[in-house]
């Protein structure tokens, strides 16, 4: 069983915030990465702050770490450990402790798959420990100023310099470390405009980042140019280098397969094909949500991070912003 709890959702957050379930925007909240007490502030999804970190060995020297935010991958070896994503701000020390239980090799390189706080929150911890941080160049740009994810009404302040990526790239980067080749590929705006997926060639493992929420509706961050058509296109880039034996790490949810990623792609393309004509016909967000365009899909996909109405709103908003 995965330690990820797909039942934990924005609805829980809404309860905490005293808000209303549904398509209304959540009350705006602003969090500093550190509070007045100097401690990392809480993430908007409490499970990220509290779940135990669960370790799965994917292949020799390659691990999946779940429970501290977005899914994390660790490659160990004589060249030093490489960490893909760093969870939410409150979990940096927990992650360090978990990694020490797996290897004596310190983390020398951190790779961020995109700028979101649940994938970069531990950067400060590892940057302070002298790891170099690698990401797509827009990740550094976005982390350098406050960023608001409008869908969840959450604002993250600028990151301290020690947490910023120090090595950035535009489209592709290849690392040759620990007897494997790691291909980093940036896709055009999809979940955000900073998304990078990784292919560990020797192990046939892919980290698909938040292009892939395995088994439930994804968040599409239209505040940073994410859009549903880009999600489909981005997933196609991942599928193009995968096969039936590839282990595909989603940004959220349990370890996945080619078939599961394809299923997610098929669902997104179907939803796009249903709502895009409505957007182009000038229907409002409220009208499209009320039309329940995903009603036959909701039983399977609508029990995760986003409820069906919020997902439809997200997908519609992403199309509206993309078409502007
Ligand atoms: Zn994300």
Description:
The protein has 324 residues and is α/β, with parallel strands linked by helices. It has one domain (10-263): Ribonuclease Z/Hydroxyacylglutathione hydrolase-like (Metallo-beta-lactamase, Chain A, 4-Layer Sandwich), CATH 3.60.15. 31% of the residues lie in helices and 20% in strands. It has helices spanning 10-17, 46-50, 92-100, 117-120, 123-128, 137-143, 228-240, 258-280, 285-290, 298-301, 308-323, and strands at 29-30, 54-59, 62-66, 72-75, 81-84, 107-111, 132-136, 147-149, 154-156, 167-169, 172-177, 180-186, 196-200, 205-207, 247-249. The strands form 3 sheets. The chain has a 7-stranded mixed sheet with strand order 2-3-4-5-6-7-10. Strands 11-12-13-14-15 form a 5-stranded mixed sheet, with no helix packed on it. Mean pLDDT is 89; it is low at 1-32. Bound molecules: zinc ion (ZN). Zinc ion binds next to loops.
Question: What are the key terms here?
Answer:
324 residues; Metallo-beta-lactamase, Chain A; 11 helices; 15 strands; globular; binds zinc ion
In brief:
By secondary structure, the protein is of the alpha/beta class. The chain is 31% helix and 20% strand.
N-to-C span:
43 Å
Q: Measured on Cα atoms, how large is the radius of gyration?
A: 19 Å
Strand order of the largest sheet: 2-3-4-5-6-7-10
Mean pLDDT comes to: 89
Shape: globular
CATH topology: Metallo-beta-lactamase, Chain A
Q: Provide the succession of SSEs.
A: HEHEEEEHEHHEHEEEEEEEHEHHHH
How many extended strands?
A: 15
Percentage of residues in strands: 15-25%
List the total number of helices.
Answer: 11
Question: Which class best fits the helix and strand makeup?
Answer: alpha/beta
């Amino acid at each position: 069983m995965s330690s990820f709890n797909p039942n934990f959702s924005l609805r829980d957050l809404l309860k905490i915030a005293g808000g209303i379930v549904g398509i209304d925007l959540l009350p705006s909240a602003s969090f500093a990465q550190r509070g007045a007490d100097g401690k990392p502030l809480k993430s908007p999804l409490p499970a990220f702050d509290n779940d135990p970190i669960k370790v799965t060995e994917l292949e020799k020297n390659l691990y999946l770490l779940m429970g501290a935010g977005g899914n994390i991958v660790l490659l160990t070896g004589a060249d030093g450990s490489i960490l893909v994503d760093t969870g939410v701000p409150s979990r940096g020390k927990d992650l360090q402790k978990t990694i020490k239980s797996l290897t004596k090799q310190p983390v020398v390189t951190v790779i961020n798959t995109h700028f979101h706080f649940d994938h970069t929150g531990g950067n400060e911890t590892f940057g302070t420990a002298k790891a170099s941080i690698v990401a797509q160049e827009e990740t550094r740009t976005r982390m350098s100023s406050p960023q608001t994810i409008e869908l969840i009404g959450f604002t993250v302040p600028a990151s301290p310099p020690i947490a910023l990526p120090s090595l950035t790239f535009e489209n592709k980067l290849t690392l040759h470390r620990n007897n494997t080749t790691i291909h980093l590929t940036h896709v055009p705006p999809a979940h955000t405009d900073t998304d990078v997926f990784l292919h560990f060639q020797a192990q046939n493992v892919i980290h698909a980042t938040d292009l892939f929420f395995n088994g439930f509706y994804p968040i599409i961050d239209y505040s940073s140019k994410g859009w549903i058509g880009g999600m489909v296109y981005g997933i196609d880039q991942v599928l193009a280098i995968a096969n039936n034996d590839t282990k595909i790490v989603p940004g959220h949810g349990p370890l996945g397969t080619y078939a599961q990623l394809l299923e997610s792609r098929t669902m997104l393309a179907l939803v796009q094909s249903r709502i895009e004509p409505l957007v182009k016909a000038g229907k409002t967000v409220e009208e499209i949500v009320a039309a329940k365009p995903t009603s036959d899909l909701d039983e399977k996909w609508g029990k995760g991070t986003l409820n069906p109405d919020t997902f439809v709103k997200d997908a519609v908003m992403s199309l509206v912003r993309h078409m502007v």
